[in-house]
Amino acid sequence: MKIGLFDSGLGGLIVTHSLIQAMPEYDYVYLGDTARVPYGNRSQEIIYQFTRDAVDYLFSKEDCQLIILACNTASAEALRRIQQEYLPERYPERRVLGVLIPAAEATAASTQNGKVGVIATQGTVDSQAYTRELHKLNPKLKVYQQATPLLVPLVENNALGYAGPMLDDYLRSLQGQAIDTLILGCTHYPLYKQQLQQRLGKAVQIISQDDIIPPKLADYLQRHPEIDRLLSRQGQYTFYATDITPGTAAVARHLFGAAIPIQKITLT
Which of 5, 10, 71, 171 is catalytic? Predict the structure, then answer.
C-alpha cells in the first residue's frame, strides 16, 4: 500500500520531492487538482467535496494506506471532517494527515518572542486554523495573519519573476509587528523562501513545510508501526493531475526539481 499526497494544484510537489529525498524507499502517489486550483477562495463545503473526491480516488484507485493533505486550505477546511465523518464510514483502517498542525508545532517550539506571522490563502486565513492550533500549544502567542491570494497563481503559471511588488505589499503589515517567525501556510510558498528571507532579514525564522513534513512523517510511522508495515517499499513514484496544460510540465519540473511524468485523471 502506498503513501498518497494531495494538493489543490502543483505546489504539493515541493513537499513530495522532500519526502522522496528523505524517505526514497516508500511508494508515493501524487494528485494535484489542477483543474480546480486554487481552493483558497472557495466555500468550506466545496473544499470538503473536492478533498473528499481526491481522497476517495487515492484510496479506491491507488490503494493508499496513508494520505497527506499537502494543501493548507484542505488541511484547514476539510481535514477534521474527513477524519471524523468520512474515514470511520468508508475506510476506518486508513489515515489522512494534514500539514497545518506540524507547522504549528514547529513554530511554537522555535519562536523566541512569541510573535508569529502567517502568510496563507484567503481560505486558510479566514478559517483561523493556524491561530487556533498555535494557541492550543501556547495561548500567549501573538499571531498575525496575512492573506496572500496571488502567490499561488504565480507559481501555477511559472511567473515568480512578478512576485516582488506583491511580496513587498503583503509583508508590510507583518514587518510592523516585530515577528521572529513566519509560517509559510501554503505548500506553494517554499519557492518564495529566498525572497521572503531577503525582505524579512535573518532574524526572522521561516517555517516551511518541505523542511518539516519529512521528519514529522518519519516520526509518525515510527510511532505507528502497524501502519508502517503495511506500506510498500519499491521506490515507485506516480504523479497525477486533473488538468494538463502546455505549461504544466515546465511548472512541475521547476517545483519538483526534475522532469516528471504526469498523467491526467478525472475526479468524480
Answer: 71
